[in-house]
Amino acid sequence: MFLEKVVIDVLTKYPDFSPEKMIFVVPNKRATLFLKKYFSKHIGKICQSPRFLSMESWVEQIAQYQIMPNMSLLFELYNTYLANNDTPDDFETFVGWGQTLLQDFNEIDQYLINPNDIFPYIKAIKEVEHWSLSQELTPMQEKHLAFWNTLGLYYRAFSEKLTLKKQGYRGFVYRKATQKINSYIEKSKDKLHIFAGFNALTQSEEILIESVLLSTTSEIYWDIDKTFLSDNQHDAGYFIRQYFSRWKYYNNRERKWEGDDFSSEKNINIVGVPKSVNQAHYVGKLVNQIPDFQWENTAIILADENLLLPVIQSINKNKLPMNITMGYPLKQTSTSSLFSAFFKLYTSNNWYYKDVENLLQQPLIQRILSKDSIEQITQHIRHKNWVYISKNQLVEQLSLEDEEIINILFSDSKSITAKLLIEQCFNLIFILKNKLEEEKETNALLLEYLYRFYELFNQLYDLENQYSFLITPKTLYYLYNELLVKQTLDFQGEPLQGLQLMGMLECQNLDFENVIIVSVNEGILPAGKSVNSFIPFDVKNNLGLPTYKHRDAIFTYHFYRLLQRAKNIHLVYNTETDSFKGGEKSRFILQLLTQQADNLHITETILTPQVIASQFDLMIIEKDENVMTRLKEIASGRGFSPSALTTYIRNPIDFYKQNILQAREERDVEEIMEARTFGDIVHATLEALFSPYLGKILTIESIHSMKENVPFLIDKYFKELYKEEENLGKNTLIFSVIQEYIEQFLEMEKRTISHTTIEILALEKDLITSVRFPEFDFDICLRGTADRIERRNGQLYIVDYKTGKVEQRNITLNENGWQKLITDFNYNKAFQLLMYAYILKKENQHTDNEIFAGNYSFKNLESNFLGFRNENDKTPSAITDLINNRFEEKLKELLLEIFDPNIPFLEKKI
């Protein structure tokens, strides 16, 4: 293995060098653990240990500067920005672009770019972009150019501030180190420096390493295979080829440590698996096939670290020992979900009902808030149709025992400050801690999560104390997420034993015989081209700053380095797109497939999960004694409406649920008004408009009077039925639509009464009758509600309003239609009109032999009154005794089926 070979070579070449004077420098801290292991194994004597340092730690020692946390840097940069800008953005706006600026400063310093060169260069480019011969710059363009003019000023002022603090961002500290490298070398003449496993070095790192190599006793070990080094087109050797060609160190030295491991026999298994989670399942099965003596020599590499938990769960089924280097993201815990839901309430101007419900549904909240209180709140939200909620509305629904918790969860959102919000988070943590400690052993992991969040909020508390004038609740949420994303919970395990589970960059310098790489997809390995930067691509390219090409070469090196010494390689990729990723295999797989090499034994497989077609069994409910009893109760009680009977026609199971079980769907909050409420408002408004004219003949003047009341009545019923205190968003448009519908309807009525006499007889008329057919030994109640009953030129009309679309064909019956009237739901509107007329005639409320019935469709008002028709009639057909008797026969046929105990309720495919 590479690091072990390094240790052996150093001990062989420098047998008399005291270990305590040796300094090993490697890219990351993880590699130092393995170096220590191999050094202890091969030193063969008790001695003081060498110093094993990551590159970052070594640079900090040279510079005598400390790398600051990103959050502190962001605040310091904003202070610099404030001091050098007369009209600054607020901090919330600044964080949107300040992070990008910080990253650009970091790259400029890491690559030792002269700030006097790059900032005027960028400024000149931006001026050319906005240059126009004929037009003056707009104020927006002038502000934009002013920003580029001040970048150099911000950089210099920020550097001065950091120099005084002897702290800075990574690039700043690395630039300082290059300025002090000669002093460091003078003090380190008696030291042996060993650099191992580096690849993509920044300009500052190159200067630091080469300066030490040229001036002290030192060695550098590259982990590169000659297959990649000799091929000038292969990106895996891109960086190291440059060092060999341009470093003075290699002017009179031979290139060493070019391995030839990639030419060894390798079994490469390429597997395409649909969906990310199935990749995890496949890895679990794969690991189970590896002999236990090979576990320490097996690495599972996650190119997509979001698969950490699914992979752990798949492997844990086999109870295998493993070491997880990545740490479990605190962001993926239930505690994180709780605080995110909590913060979301206070980053909005109003409490949105879904945010309130989301908070109440958090598992941890349900441990400390009574079930009754949660149910009362959620039910009241739906009943009152609250889209936005106030604290007072919530408090009214709660029992006194929950008052303390509610005051923590729901403070006054308009007066809350960032400091108070942090204190409320502390209070919530303490309440949860006390509750969880009642069963301490069971809740050990949850208590650990809470403690980590307690530490996180302490950091936020310190930041708020230091920069209180900058932090608002919204800014606090941003800072919270920035800190949270870096927090992980370490897994227990031995770092040098068992299966190794790690991310792509953590495996640098490490070698394994068995390698499983997961999510080998384009856009993940390598990552996409997206880079946040203010520096244009051409400027970066010209000045030698890293671009996406640079990043692609880094991924290429890491990928092929993993394969160098491995014998058994499994490359797993996702064949389907998940969240805009996946579906396309990585270019690295395509490169391997096109390589003509006898030592690479490649197999390619695409796994397709076995799909078992599920048999959809239609539900059948037999009519037992209880069902028959319930049907008779309905018949003798509230009765059957056209809606109930057409529900049976549509699907008998729905009829069973609604009428026998009396099950109703829970009413949701209507953010945008639903058709049901829309119709209720239209009906209520029309009833109120026509009520003053009951028993009267409509006139043009009465229509004009109605129109004046339309806005007031719509507003009244909008608030009563929809329960929204203000018309917000799309509902304002719906309000206007209702008003336009009703005004158009009244205009149509005005045209009608110009040639027709209309007398209003009844509004929202309850129709009810009882029937007894010879086949039944009990009465059956039939009922309905007619929107309007009137006389037109002396003839009786039943009018039913429809806010949906109705066309003439929906209420026209031919012979085929009569046959399907009680079997096809498409005839439900005709069924309703015929049943209204049947009840009206049955009760002899009017002696008319002929009744007309029809709809006004508000989505088809241009068709005017749509009356029931027989197929061959050109105008509305009178519902005569003949038609009435024919309907009665169909009605009896339907009721006989419903009450037949031998005919079960059979579900229909809809």
TrEMBL record:
Residues 640-907 form the PD-(D/E)XK endonuclease-like domain. It comes from the Bacteria. This is PD-(D/E)XK endonuclease-like domain-containing protein. It comes from Capnocytophaga catalasegens.
